[in-house]
TrEMBL record:
Glycosylation sites: 263
The species this protein was found in: Holothuria leucospilota
Record carries keyword Nucleotide-binding: yes
GO molecular function: AMPylase activity; ATP binding
Annotated family: Belongs to the fic family.
Spans of repeat TPR: 95-128
Full protein name: protein adenylyltransferase
Binding positions for ATP per the UniProt entry: 355-362, 387-388, 395
E.C. number(s) listed in UniProt: 2.7.7.108
Keywords from the UniProt entry: ATP-binding, Membrane, Nucleotide-binding, Nucleotidyltransferase, Repeat, TPR repeat, Transferase, Transmembrane, Transmembrane helix
GO CC, alphabetical: membrane
Site feature Important for autoinhibition of adenylyltransferase activity, where: 222
Length: 442
Protein backbone atom coordinates (compact mmCIF):
# COMPACT_ATOMS: atom_id res chain seq x y z
CA UNK A 1 0.00 0.00 0.00
CA UNK A 2 1.43 3.30 -1.00
CA UNK A 3 1.12 5.97 1.64
CA UNK A 4 1.63 9.66 1.34
CA UNK A 5 1.46 12.41 3.89
CA UNK A 6 0.30 14.83 1.23
CA UNK A 7 -3.35 14.38 1.95
CA UNK A 8 -4.35 16.72 -0.81
CA UNK A 9 -3.36 14.01 -3.21
CA UNK A 10 -5.98 11.41 -2.61
CA UNK A 11 -4.90 7.90 -1.78
CA UNK A 12 -7.00 6.87 -4.72
CA UNK A 13 -4.83 8.71 -7.19
CA UNK A 14 -1.50 8.07 -5.56
CA UNK A 15 -2.10 4.38 -5.05
CA UNK A 16 -3.14 4.03 -8.64
CA UNK A 17 0.16 5.57 -9.63
CA UNK A 18 2.06 3.29 -7.25
CA UNK A 19 0.19 0.41 -8.69
CA UNK A 20 1.04 1.25 -12.28
CA UNK A 21 4.63 2.25 -11.79
CA UNK A 22 7.29 1.16 -9.38
CA UNK A 23 10.09 2.64 -7.30
CA UNK A 24 12.16 5.28 -9.02
CA UNK A 25 9.58 6.28 -11.55
CA UNK A 26 7.12 6.78 -8.73
CA UNK A 27 9.48 9.13 -6.97
CA UNK A 28 9.85 11.22 -10.10
CA UNK A 29 6.14 11.25 -10.65
CA UNK A 30 5.46 12.21 -7.08
CA UNK A 31 7.58 15.29 -7.27
CA UNK A 32 5.69 16.19 -10.42
CA UNK A 33 2.44 15.83 -8.55
CA UNK A 34 3.72 17.94 -5.69
CA UNK A 35 4.59 20.67 -8.11
CA UNK A 36 1.28 20.27 -9.83
CA UNK A 37 -0.45 20.40 -6.49
CA UNK A 38 0.83 23.81 -5.53
CA UNK A 39 -0.37 25.03 -8.88
CA UNK A 40 -3.77 23.49 -8.33
CA UNK A 41 -4.48 25.05 -4.93
CA UNK A 42 -6.18 27.95 -6.61
CA UNK A 43 -7.89 25.69 -9.05
CA UNK A 44 -9.21 23.68 -6.13
CA UNK A 45 -10.86 26.75 -4.72
CA UNK A 46 -12.07 27.73 -8.12
CA UNK A 47 -13.60 24.28 -8.55
CA UNK A 48 -15.44 24.56 -5.26
CA UNK A 49 -16.67 28.05 -5.97
CA UNK A 50 -17.80 26.96 -9.37
CA UNK A 51 -19.65 24.06 -7.84
CA UNK A 52 -21.46 26.35 -5.42
CA UNK A 53 -22.34 28.69 -8.25
CA UNK A 54 -23.52 25.85 -10.44
CA UNK A 55 -25.76 24.58 -7.73
CA UNK A 56 -27.08 28.09 -7.22
CA UNK A 57 -27.70 28.28 -10.94
CA UNK A 58 -29.70 25.12 -10.67
CA UNK A 59 -32.06 26.66 -8.20
CA UNK A 60 -35.00 27.89 -10.17
CA UNK A 61 -36.62 31.20 -9.44
CA UNK A 62 -33.41 33.05 -8.81
CA UNK A 63 -33.57 35.04 -11.99
CA UNK A 64 -30.41 33.65 -13.53
CA UNK A 65 -30.23 31.76 -16.77
CA UNK A 66 -28.65 28.37 -16.32
CA UNK A 67 -25.50 27.99 -18.34
CA UNK A 68 -25.16 24.28 -17.68
CA UNK A 69 -26.23 21.90 -20.43
CA UNK A 70 -29.73 20.59 -19.95
CA UNK A 71 -28.76 17.14 -21.19
CA UNK A 72 -27.37 16.71 -17.68
CA UNK A 73 -30.05 14.77 -15.73
CA UNK A 74 -29.49 16.57 -12.44
CA UNK A 75 -29.85 19.92 -14.18
CA UNK A 76 -32.95 18.79 -15.98
CA UNK A 77 -34.45 17.68 -12.73
CA UNK A 78 -33.45 20.79 -10.80
CA UNK A 79 -34.91 23.03 -13.47
CA UNK A 80 -38.19 21.21 -13.28
CA UNK A 81 -38.39 21.69 -9.52
CA UNK A 82 -41.12 23.96 -8.28
CA UNK A 83 -39.98 27.52 -7.68
CA UNK A 84 -39.49 28.23 -3.98
CA UNK A 85 -42.64 29.86 -2.89
CA UNK A 86 -43.51 31.21 0.44
CA UNK A 87 -44.92 34.17 -1.37
CA UNK A 88 -48.42 34.43 -0.18
CA UNK A 89 -49.09 38.12 0.24
CA UNK A 90 -50.05 37.87 3.89
CA UNK A 91 -46.78 36.26 4.78
CA UNK A 92 -44.83 38.84 2.88
CA UNK A 93 -46.66 41.67 4.58
CA UNK A 94 -46.00 40.28 8.04
CA UNK A 95 -42.40 39.51 7.21
CA UNK A 96 -41.85 43.02 5.92
CA UNK A 97 -43.46 44.50 9.02
CA UNK A 98 -41.15 42.43 11.23
CA UNK A 99 -38.23 43.49 9.07
CA UNK A 100 -39.03 47.18 9.49
CA UNK A 101 -39.36 46.76 13.24
CA UNK A 102 -36.04 44.93 13.27
CA UNK A 103 -34.32 47.75 11.39
CA UNK A 104 -35.80 50.28 13.83
CA UNK A 105 -34.65 48.27 16.83
CA UNK A 106 -31.17 48.04 15.30
CA UNK A 107 -31.09 51.83 14.75
CA UNK A 108 -32.06 52.37 18.39
CA UNK A 109 -29.31 50.08 19.58
CA UNK A 110 -31.70 47.40 20.85
CA UNK A 111 -29.63 44.47 19.69
CA UNK A 112 -31.43 41.62 21.42
CA UNK A 113 -34.79 42.82 20.21
CA UNK A 114 -33.47 43.39 16.70
CA UNK A 115 -32.03 39.89 16.58
CA UNK A 116 -35.36 38.36 17.57
CA UNK A 117 -37.22 40.43 15.00
CA UNK A 118 -34.79 39.56 12.21
CA UNK A 119 -35.15 35.88 13.07
CA UNK A 120 -38.91 36.27 13.14
CA UNK A 121 -38.94 37.95 9.73
CA UNK A 122 -36.73 35.24 8.31
CA UNK A 123 -38.95 32.50 9.73
CA UNK A 124 -41.98 34.15 8.11
CA UNK A 125 -40.30 34.47 4.75
CA UNK A 126 -37.03 32.60 4.41
CA UNK A 127 -36.74 33.47 0.72
CA UNK A 128 -37.02 37.23 0.90
CA UNK A 129 -33.86 38.90 -0.38
CA UNK A 130 -34.43 42.08 1.67
CA UNK A 131 -34.83 40.11 4.90
CA UNK A 132 -31.77 38.00 4.17
CA UNK A 133 -29.68 41.01 3.26
CA UNK A 134 -30.68 43.18 6.23
CA UNK A 135 -30.22 40.31 8.66
CA UNK A 136 -26.78 39.74 7.14
CA UNK A 137 -25.84 43.39 7.64
CA UNK A 138 -26.98 43.14 11.26
CA UNK A 139 -24.78 40.07 11.88
CA UNK A 140 -21.74 41.03 9.85
CA UNK A 141 -19.64 42.51 12.67
CA UNK A 142 -20.19 39.49 14.89
CA UNK A 143 -20.23 36.72 12.32
CA UNK A 144 -19.00 37.55 8.86
CA UNK A 145 -19.31 33.93 7.71
CA UNK A 146 -23.01 33.79 8.49
CA UNK A 147 -23.55 37.26 7.04
CA UNK A 148 -21.87 36.16 3.83
CA UNK A 149 -24.14 33.12 3.70
CA UNK A 150 -27.21 35.33 4.10
CA UNK A 151 -26.04 37.69 1.33
CA UNK A 152 -25.44 34.67 -0.87
CA UNK A 153 -29.00 33.46 -0.28
CA UNK A 154 -30.32 36.96 -0.96
CA UNK A 155 -28.56 36.94 -4.31
CA UNK A 156 -29.86 33.46 -5.04
CA UNK A 157 -33.43 34.71 -4.61
CA UNK A 158 -32.87 38.02 -6.33
CA UNK A 159 -29.94 38.04 -8.70
CA UNK A 160 -30.17 41.81 -9.15
CA UNK A 161 -30.32 42.75 -5.47
CA UNK A 162 -27.71 45.48 -5.62
CA UNK A 163 -27.14 45.86 -1.87
CA UNK A 164 -26.67 42.14 -1.35
CA UNK A 165 -24.33 41.97 -4.33
CA UNK A 166 -22.15 44.78 -3.01
CA UNK A 167 -22.19 43.30 0.51
CA UNK A 168 -21.12 39.99 -0.95
CA UNK A 169 -18.29 41.66 -2.80
CA UNK A 170 -17.10 43.02 0.54
CA UNK A 171 -17.32 39.77 2.53
CA UNK A 172 -16.44 37.05 0.04
CA UNK A 173 -12.66 37.47 0.15
CA UNK A 174 -12.41 37.39 3.94
CA UNK A 175 -14.79 34.45 4.16
CA UNK A 176 -12.78 32.54 1.57
CA UNK A 177 -9.72 33.24 3.71
CA UNK A 178 -11.49 31.98 6.86
CA UNK A 179 -12.53 28.82 5.02
CA UNK A 180 -9.01 28.32 3.78
CA UNK A 181 -7.64 28.68 7.32
CA UNK A 182 -10.09 26.03 8.46
CA UNK A 183 -8.72 23.60 5.86
CA UNK A 184 -5.13 24.57 6.68
CA UNK A 185 -5.82 23.81 10.33
CA UNK A 186 -7.26 20.43 9.36
CA UNK A 187 -4.18 19.73 7.24
CA UNK A 188 -1.85 20.60 10.11
CA UNK A 189 -3.76 18.36 12.51
CA UNK A 190 -3.89 15.63 9.90
CA UNK A 191 -0.11 15.63 9.78
CA UNK A 192 -0.01 15.22 13.55
CA UNK A 193 -2.59 12.47 13.29
CA UNK A 194 -0.51 10.58 10.71
CA UNK A 195 2.44 10.60 13.10
CA UNK A 196 0.51 8.60 15.70
CA UNK A 197 1.59 5.01 15.41
CA UNK A 198 -1.29 2.87 14.20
CA UNK A 199 -0.05 -0.01 16.30
CA UNK A 200 -0.01 1.99 19.54
CA UNK A 201 -2.46 0.91 22.18
CA UNK A 202 -3.88 4.41 22.41
CA UNK A 203 -4.65 4.40 18.71
CA UNK A 204 -6.24 0.97 18.81
CA UNK A 205 -8.40 1.86 21.80
CA UNK A 206 -9.45 5.15 20.36
CA UNK A 207 -10.34 3.59 17.04
CA UNK A 208 -12.44 0.95 18.76
CA UNK A 209 -14.17 3.54 20.91
CA UNK A 210 -14.92 5.85 17.99
CA UNK A 211 -16.20 2.85 16.06
CA UNK A 212 -18.91 2.37 18.69
CA UNK A 213 -19.62 6.09 18.74
CA UNK A 214 -20.04 6.05 14.98
CA UNK A 215 -22.58 3.22 15.12
CA UNK A 216 -24.35 4.88 18.03
CA UNK A 217 -24.70 8.38 16.59
CA UNK A 218 -25.53 7.38 13.03
CA UNK A 219 -28.40 5.16 14.15
CA UNK A 220 -29.52 7.46 16.98
CA UNK A 221 -29.84 10.35 14.52
CA UNK A 222 -32.37 8.24 12.65
CA UNK A 223 -34.35 7.65 15.83
CA UNK A 224 -32.86 4.47 17.28
CA UNK A 225 -33.36 4.59 21.07
CA UNK A 226 -30.69 2.09 22.16
CA UNK A 227 -28.00 3.72 24.29
CA UNK A 228 -24.32 3.69 23.45
CA UNK A 229 -23.71 1.07 26.15
CA UNK A 230 -26.54 -1.11 24.90
CA UNK A 231 -25.25 -0.97 21.33
CA UNK A 232 -21.75 -1.77 22.48
CA UNK A 233 -23.07 -4.74 24.39
CA UNK A 234 -25.01 -6.01 21.36
CA UNK A 235 -21.91 -5.74 19.18
CA UNK A 236 -19.59 -7.30 21.74
CA UNK A 237 -21.77 -10.14 22.98
CA UNK A 238 -24.38 -10.64 20.26
CA UNK A 239 -26.98 -10.78 23.04
CA UNK A 240 -30.26 -8.92 22.81
CA UNK A 241 -31.35 -6.11 25.12
CA UNK A 242 -34.63 -6.79 26.89
CA UNK A 243 -37.52 -4.49 26.05
CA UNK A 244 -35.95 -3.12 22.86
CA UNK A 245 -37.39 -3.90 19.44
CA UNK A 246 -35.89 -6.34 16.97
CA UNK A 247 -35.85 -3.53 14.44
CA UNK A 248 -33.58 -1.42 16.60
CA UNK A 249 -31.23 -4.35 17.13
CA UNK A 250 -31.19 -4.99 13.40
CA UNK A 251 -30.24 -1.40 12.67
CA UNK A 252 -27.16 -1.80 14.84
CA UNK A 253 -26.22 -5.11 13.22
CA UNK A 254 -26.71 -3.61 9.76
CA UNK A 255 -24.43 -0.70 10.50
CA UNK A 256 -21.78 -3.01 11.86
CA UNK A 257 -21.93 -5.19 8.74
CA UNK A 258 -21.67 -2.12 6.52
CA UNK A 259 -18.64 -0.83 8.44
CA UNK A 260 -16.97 -4.22 8.22
CA UNK A 261 -17.67 -4.38 4.50
CA UNK A 262 -16.12 -0.96 4.00
CA UNK A 263 -13.11 -1.85 6.12
CA UNK A 264 -12.48 -5.27 4.66
CA UNK A 265 -13.44 -4.73 1.02
CA UNK A 266 -13.73 -1.12 -0.12
CA UNK A 267 -10.75 0.14 1.87
CA UNK A 268 -8.53 -2.66 0.58
CA UNK A 269 -9.40 -2.13 -3.05
CA UNK A 270 -7.69 0.30 -5.36
CA UNK A 271 -9.78 2.13 -7.89
CA UNK A 272 -13.08 3.79 -8.52
CA UNK A 273 -16.17 3.80 -6.36
CA UNK A 274 -19.07 2.32 -8.32
CA UNK A 275 -22.85 2.39 -8.04
CA UNK A 276 -22.60 -1.27 -7.10
CA UNK A 277 -20.40 -0.34 -4.12
CA UNK A 278 -22.97 2.17 -2.88
CA UNK A 279 -25.75 -0.39 -3.29
CA UNK A 280 -23.60 -2.93 -1.43
CA UNK A 281 -23.20 -0.54 1.51
CA UNK A 282 -26.93 0.11 1.56
CA UNK A 283 -27.62 -3.61 1.28
CA UNK A 284 -25.81 -4.15 4.57
CA UNK A 285 -27.26 -1.10 6.33
CA UNK A 286 -30.81 -2.23 5.69
CA UNK A 287 -30.36 -5.98 5.13
CA UNK A 288 -31.75 -7.13 8.46
CA UNK A 289 -34.35 -4.40 8.70
CA UNK A 290 -35.87 -4.52 5.25
CA UNK A 291 -34.38 -7.30 3.07
CA UNK A 292 -36.69 -6.42 0.17
CA UNK A 293 -35.54 -2.83 -0.30
CA UNK A 294 -31.97 -3.33 0.90
CA UNK A 295 -29.49 -2.74 -1.90
CA UNK A 296 -32.15 -1.47 -4.30
CA UNK A 297 -33.03 2.03 -5.40
CA UNK A 298 -36.54 3.23 -4.73
CA UNK A 299 -39.28 2.87 -7.31
CA UNK A 300 -41.60 5.53 -5.93
CA UNK A 301 -41.54 9.20 -5.06
CA UNK A 302 -40.56 10.26 -1.54
CA UNK A 303 -41.04 13.56 0.24
CA UNK A 304 -38.74 14.75 2.98
CA UNK A 305 -39.48 18.01 4.69
CA UNK A 306 -39.09 20.85 2.22
CA UNK A 307 -37.06 18.82 -0.25
CA UNK A 308 -38.72 16.84 -3.01
CA UNK A 309 -36.08 14.41 -4.26
CA UNK A 310 -35.93 13.53 -7.97
CA UNK A 311 -38.55 11.12 -9.32
CA UNK A 312 -37.61 7.47 -9.13
CA UNK A 313 -37.40 7.21 -12.93
CA UNK A 314 -34.40 9.58 -12.87
CA UNK A 315 -32.44 7.75 -10.20
CA UNK A 316 -30.50 5.40 -12.41
CA UNK A 317 -29.18 8.28 -14.55
CA UNK A 318 -28.52 10.44 -11.51
CA UNK A 319 -26.55 7.71 -9.77
CA UNK A 320 -24.43 7.14 -12.88
CA UNK A 321 -23.76 10.85 -13.06
CA UNK A 322 -23.00 10.98 -9.33
CA UNK A 323 -20.47 8.17 -9.55
CA UNK A 324 -18.87 9.76 -12.58
CA UNK A 325 -18.40 12.88 -10.49
CA UNK A 326 -17.05 10.81 -7.53
CA UNK A 327 -14.26 9.60 -9.78
CA UNK A 328 -13.73 12.82 -11.69
CA UNK A 329 -10.78 15.14 -11.91
CA UNK A 330 -13.00 17.92 -10.53
CA UNK A 331 -13.67 15.94 -7.37
CA UNK A 332 -10.00 15.06 -6.96
CA UNK A 333 -9.10 18.74 -7.02
CA UNK A 334 -11.16 19.36 -3.92
CA UNK A 335 -9.80 19.06 -0.40
CA UNK A 336 -10.77 15.58 0.86
CA UNK A 337 -13.16 17.05 3.42
CA UNK A 338 -14.88 19.15 0.76
CA UNK A 339 -15.05 16.11 -1.47
CA UNK A 340 -16.45 13.90 1.30
CA UNK A 341 -19.05 16.46 2.38
CA UNK A 342 -20.20 17.13 -1.18
CA UNK A 343 -20.47 13.40 -1.85
CA UNK A 344 -22.70 13.12 1.21
CA UNK A 345 -24.75 16.11 0.12
CA UNK A 346 -25.24 14.89 -3.42
CA UNK A 347 -26.28 11.41 -2.34
CA UNK A 348 -28.93 12.63 0.08
CA UNK A 349 -30.09 15.14 -2.52
CA UNK A 350 -30.74 12.31 -4.99
CA UNK A 351 -32.17 10.25 -2.15
CA UNK A 352 -31.92 6.99 -4.09
CA UNK A 353 -33.39 4.77 -1.39
CA UNK A 354 -36.69 4.52 0.42
CA UNK A 355 -34.86 4.42 3.74
CA UNK A 356 -31.26 4.43 4.90
CA UNK A 357 -30.12 7.35 2.72
CA UNK A 358 -28.56 9.31 5.59
CA UNK A 359 -26.71 6.31 7.00
CA UNK A 360 -25.43 5.32 3.57
CA UNK A 361 -24.35 8.90 2.83
CA UNK A 362 -22.45 9.16 6.12
CA UNK A 363 -20.71 5.86 5.40
CA UNK A 364 -19.76 6.98 1.89
CA UNK A 365 -18.46 10.26 3.28
CA UNK A 366 -16.32 8.38 5.78
CA UNK A 367 -15.07 5.98 3.12
CA UNK A 368 -13.80 8.98 1.14
CA UNK A 369 -12.17 10.47 4.24
CA UNK A 370 -10.52 7.19 5.20
CA UNK A 371 -9.22 6.67 1.67
CA UNK A 372 -7.53 10.04 2.06
CA UNK A 373 -5.94 8.92 5.33
CA UNK A 374 -8.34 10.67 7.72
CA UNK A 375 -10.27 9.11 10.58
CA UNK A 376 -14.02 8.77 10.00
CA UNK A 377 -16.14 11.59 11.39
CA UNK A 378 -19.00 11.17 13.82
CA UNK A 379 -22.03 13.34 13.13
CA UNK A 380 -23.31 13.72 16.65
CA UNK A 381 -26.89 13.29 17.74
CA UNK A 382 -26.61 16.57 19.66
CA UNK A 383 -25.74 18.32 16.38
CA UNK A 384 -28.62 16.85 14.45
CA UNK A 385 -30.30 20.21 14.05
CA UNK A 386 -27.26 21.95 12.59
CA UNK A 387 -26.63 18.94 10.39
CA UNK A 388 -30.06 19.13 8.78
CA UNK A 389 -30.09 22.92 8.69
CA UNK A 390 -26.82 23.06 6.79
CA UNK A 391 -28.06 20.42 4.33
CA UNK A 392 -31.11 22.62 3.76
CA UNK A 393 -28.85 25.59 3.14
CA UNK A 394 -27.22 23.46 0.46
CA UNK A 395 -30.63 22.94 -1.12
CA UNK A 396 -30.99 26.70 -1.30
CA UNK A 397 -27.74 26.91 -3.22
CA UNK A 398 -25.00 27.51 -0.64
CA UNK A 399 -23.13 24.32 0.16
CA UNK A 400 -20.43 25.95 2.24
CA UNK A 401 -22.26 25.76 5.61
CA UNK A 402 -22.51 21.98 5.27
CA UNK A 403 -18.86 21.67 4.28
CA UNK A 404 -17.93 23.79 7.32
CA UNK A 405 -20.07 21.61 9.56
CA UNK A 406 -18.37 18.42 8.37
CA UNK A 407 -14.97 20.11 8.61
CA UNK A 408 -15.61 20.95 12.26
CA UNK A 409 -16.65 17.36 12.95
CA UNK A 410 -13.44 16.16 11.34
CA UNK A 411 -11.38 18.62 13.34
CA UNK A 412 -13.05 17.39 16.55
CA UNK A 413 -12.05 13.87 15.64
CA UNK A 414 -8.45 14.81 14.87
CA UNK A 415 -8.31 16.77 18.14
CA UNK A 416 -9.50 13.74 20.07
CA UNK A 417 -6.77 11.51 18.62
CA UNK A 418 -4.09 14.14 19.17
CA UNK A 419 -5.26 14.72 22.74
CA UNK A 420 -5.13 11.01 23.56
CA UNK A 421 -1.73 10.61 21.99
CA UNK A 422 -0.17 13.70 23.60
CA UNK A 423 0.09 12.25 27.10
CA UNK A 424 -0.13 8.60 28.25
CA UNK A 425 -2.26 9.79 31.18
CA UNK A 426 -4.93 11.13 28.87
CA UNK A 427 -7.73 8.66 28.94
CA UNK A 428 -10.44 7.81 26.51
CA UNK A 429 -12.93 8.41 29.30
CA UNK A 430 -11.94 12.09 29.20
CA UNK A 431 -13.44 12.15 25.78
CA UNK A 432 -17.05 12.34 26.85
CA UNK A 433 -19.06 9.23 26.30
CA UNK A 434 -21.55 10.53 23.83
CA UNK A 435 -19.46 13.36 22.46
CA UNK A 436 -16.21 13.31 20.61
CA UNK A 437 -15.26 16.77 21.84
CA UNK A 438 -12.13 16.70 23.91
CA UNK A 439 -13.00 17.91 27.38
CA UNK A 440 -9.55 17.66 28.93
CA UNK A 441 -6.92 20.36 28.45
CA UNK A 442 -6.34 20.32 24.71
C1 LIG B 1 -34.50 42.67 -6.56
O1 LIG B 1 -33.87 43.68 -5.82
C2 LIG B 1 -33.98 44.99 -6.37
C3 LIG B 1 -33.28 45.93 -5.41
O2 LIG B 1 -31.91 45.78 -5.44
C4 LIG B 1 -35.44 45.36 -6.52
O3 LIG B 1 -35.54 46.62 -7.14
C5 LIG B 1 -36.19 44.32 -7.34
O4 LIG B 1 -37.54 44.61 -7.37
C6 LIG B 1 -35.98 42.95 -6.71
N1 LIG B 1 -36.59 41.94 -7.56
C7 LIG B 1 -37.51 41.08 -7.10
C8 LIG B 1 -38.02 40.09 -8.09
O5 LIG B 1 -37.91 41.10 -5.94
C1 LIG C 1 -10.28 -3.44 9.55
O1 LIG C 1 -9.48 -4.33 8.78
C2 LIG C 1 -8.20 -4.58 9.31
C3 LIG C 1 -7.40 -5.46 8.37
O2 LIG C 1 -8.07 -5.73 7.19
C4 LIG C 1 -8.32 -5.21 10.70
O3 LIG C 1 -7.05 -5.42 11.25
C5 LIG C 1 -9.15 -4.30 11.59
O4 LIG C 1 -9.35 -4.91 12.85
C6 LIG C 1 -10.48 -3.99 10.96
N1 LIG C 1 -11.17 -3.01 11.78
C7 LIG C 1 -12.44 -3.11 12.12
C8 LIG C 1 -12.98 -2.02 12.97
O5 LIG C 1 -13.13 -4.01 11.74
MG1 LIG D 1 -34.55 6.67 7.85
Amino acid sequence: MCKTTEIQITINKSSLICFLLGGVITAVLFSAIHLNFSLTLDRRWAALRQHVTERALLVPGMGLTPTVPTSNPLTRWALSMPVYSSDTRVLKGEALAALHQAIDAKKNGKKVKALKLFQHALALDPNHADVLNEYGEFLEDEDVVKADHLYTCAVIFNGSHSKALSNLRRTSASVAEIDKQMLDSIDAKHEQFLKISESSRVFERARQEFYYLQVYHTTAIEGNTLTLEQMRSIMETGLAIGGKSILEHNEVLGLELALQYINSTLMQRIGQITVKDILAIHHRVLGHVNPIDAGHVRTSQVFIGGHVPPPSTEIEDLMDEFVEWLNSEEALLLHPVEFAALAHYKLVYIHPFLDGNGRTARLLMNLILMRAGFPPVVVKLSERHTYYETIKMGNLGDLRPFIRFISHSLEDMLDAYIYLDSDPDHSITDVKESEVHVIGPA
